[in-house]
Amino acid sequence: MNLKLELENLVVAPVTQEGFDLLEIKVSHFKKSSRIQIFIDGDNGVKLEDCARVSRAVEKVLDDEGILPGGFVLEVSSPGLDRPLHTSRDFRRRVGETVEVYFEDPAQAPLQGKLMTAGDDYIEVMMADGLRKLELTTVRMGKIIF
Predict the structure, then answer these.
(1) CA angle 64-28-76, nearest 5°?
(2) Selecting from 3.90.1310.10, 3.90.550.10, 3.30.300.70, 3.40.50.1380, what CATH number does the domain 3-77 have?
(3) pTM for the full model?
């Protein structure tokens, strides 16, 4: 099993127990240690104290398992406001915000509007000409417009 997958399997439980979703893990190796970056998100966003709490929980698990004997530096953070939206959960967290939606079909121009609702397999965007329902299977990604 590769190290990244092994780390993911170890940290998903403490991240989830703290009330967050594990979005991504990045691992960098140096001569005598490793850097582990963990990106989390939650329904109400991520605050600095949330990152500290998750970091303590994850660090305990990693120390107990001892899979990085050379030592490690752990960084826990949110993915940032400009992170692309891909899943229904990503879109649900951004209801009420202005989004730009890009489609799987490159011939279809992106559209921009206010994200009104997000279901399991669709989103609804209020455009200047009215409400548009978009199936998520046709959406490549969305981005928040600031």
Answers:
(1) 60
(2) 3.30.300.70
(3) 0.75
